[in-house]
Amino acid sequence: MSKATRPFTGPRRLILIQSGKFDYAELDLGQSFQLVGVNGLGKTALISTLQYLYIDNQKDMRFGQHSTEESRRFYFRADASFILFECETSLGTVTLGARSLGPTSGYELQRFTWHGGYQKDDFIDAEGRAKRWDEVRATLGGKDLKIVEGPDLRRLLGAVDEDTAESWGLVPLVEARDYPRFRQTFQRLLQLRDIRQDDLKQLLADCAKLGPSQREIDLAKDFEKDLGKIERDRAEVKRLENARPAAEEVRKLYDKEFTARAIAHACVKELNERHAGYASWFRRETEVLSDFLENSKREKARLLGVKDDLKNELNKASLEGGQAAARISALNQAKDRFADYVPEIEDQACEQLVEEVSSLTDRLKNMPKESPEALWEKLEAKRQERQQCEKKASQVSDLFITWLRARMPEQNVARIGAILNHEILESVMDENINVTNEATLIARLQAAADRCDVRGYEDESVAVEFPAGALSAASRVGRLDQIKATVQELSQDITRLERDRETVLQAAPFRVRLPAARQEYEDKIKRRAAYRQFQDDLAQESSYQAEADRWKTAVEALQKTQDENEDARQKNDTLAADAVRKFDQLTGDQTEIRRQATTPPTADGDNPGETPVSTAYVRELPESLLEVFKIVRNKCAEARTLAQTLNDKVGLLDRDFINASFPYNTSAPIEDRLRVLEAQIASLPQRSHNNENRCI
């Protein structure tokens, strides 16, 4: 191409869709711009995307320490990931895109082009979702969509050879073989390393289509004025570069001083506002404290009264509870004491003791007068008589009277029995009496009975009057039940005689045993009464236990209330003591505040107005006005110190840029001067680049 003016060719816009760290991004490449951000934000990755436009083979691309495969997965993380370059070319506006073929094809790179610019709705649907390749391809099919391989891309960029059908002229090389040098130099420029001046000059010469005779220039002869300006620019660039740390320090110091000044002014304002209302606030606070102390005094008296009432109630409840617990304890002891108590056995023992006491009493009271020998004789006689009666009882069917009753009416037998001796009537037949003629005997006895009536016997020669009860006594002779009754009477007599004889023989032991038996009886009676009381108490055990539990609960509740009363009194005393201390503190602070107010703190410099930092700092100021006085005084002093330090640092910077080529006014506010310097320092790379280009 000739030296005539050509239209600008090159990328105009960069679009990233679900690529790298961006879901969607558009960059205008037609104007200068700066990429600013913390490390790891993606600035280098964004710049490296230019390789997908200018580097024909993905194997020749460089992404720092990351491999080609890692980079492909980073830039093309989804099926709808695209990197697009909208370019102005010698053929008009064209767009080159890059995408990945996916994991099935090892994430290989595929590039494509179409005539015309980028339209967002070709790749993003109405809901803001990225379209897949199949949808995009269908849309771009009417815009001459083509798949581009490596050699085709080189020719399109500008490495024209005999097989070139069309070229965009993005890299206007003289010959196609110059493309490898362009690719190598371009990679070094992207990475800012291993850039050699000769390679850069050769590349620029190739792009400018300079002949060998045009590549030699005498700078000293033809460009002396320009070289002088370049040297001055270089010196100023060096001063700016050297001033970078100082400018950064001043910027930090300025921000710090600005913040400190804003805080100081805000604190002074807050202090003045608080101090203006301090007198009324102090009066309100002291009145509140006085009222509180008076109420606390009344509350203490009330709590002490409640304490005394609780003490009395607790003593009463403890006494009642102790009695209820004593009943339960006594009942449990009674359970052990009467565990083996059998009422029937105990009643029988009582009866035996009653009999024993009665017997001993009778013996000692009716002590017989006879001697033991006389009593023995009577005893033996009674024993023999009982023996005879027992014998009669065993032979009652063989007695003479039984024989008569079998042969005569009972009335006649009774009359005969009243006449005869009872021993005859009770004689044993065939042993004491032998009847030789039964009929004659019966006839004679019947004749005698006929001569008897209830009064007696009477015949021609004699009349006998029966004693009272003779007939009835006779009727009982020979009766088995009568004999047994006689035996029982004899046994009682024998027992009495034995007891009387024993009493006479053992009178001293009986006298000892009688009080002991009476005591045993009394003990038994008491034990039985205690057992009956135990039974009554046992029937009431549940009610006793309920009463004990009720009093126990009452005691616990009263103790809890008593503890709460104690806590309330302690809390009341503590709050009262705190109020006294606070009252004393307020009074002391008032004196010190009056002294501080004689020389109030002031903030120097312009008031920056409210800032988020100053507002937050004021919000965190303590309630104590005295503390605020101290803090504000310190903050004002801190702001003055920082302002002085800042002025000193800025003065040092001013010396190097009094006659700068850029507008720098040492009388301007520090912020303006600092902004000018920062802008100049930020433009150093471009300015250095421009100087080097002018040298080339």
Give structural notes:
This protein has 696 residues and is of the alpha+beta class. A hairpin with an 8-residue loop joins strand 4 and strand 5. It contains 24 helices and eight strands. The longest helix is centred in the middle third of the chain and has 60 residues.
Average of per-residue pLDDT values: 83
Give the total of beta strands.
Answer: 8
Strand arrangement in the largest pleated sheet: 2-1-3-4-5-6
Strand content: 5-15%
State the helical fraction: 55-70%
Radius of gyration (CA) equals 72 Å
Q: Low-confidence runs (pLDDT<50, min 5 residues)?
A: 1-6, 210-217
List the helices and strands and how they pair.
Elements: E1 10-19, E2 22-28, H1 43-48, H2 51-54, H3 68-75, E3 82-89, E4 92-100, E5 109-115, H4 133-140, E6 146-148, H5 150-157, H6 179-191, H7 197-208, H8 219-222, H9 224-276, H10 278-337, H11 343-365, H12 372-394, H13 400-405, H14 410-419, H15 422-425, H16 438-450, E7 456-458, E8 463-465, H17 470-476, H18 480-505, H19 507-539, H20 541-597, H21 612-619, H22 625-656, H23 670-682, H24 684-695
Antiparallel strand pairs: 1-2, 1-3, 3-4, 4-5, 5-6, 7-8
Key terms for this structure?
two-stranded antiparallel ribbon, alpha+beta, disordered N terminus, six-stranded antiparallel beta sheet, 8 strands, elongated
Q: How would you concisely characterize the structure shown here?
A:
The protein has 696 residues and is an alpha+beta fold.
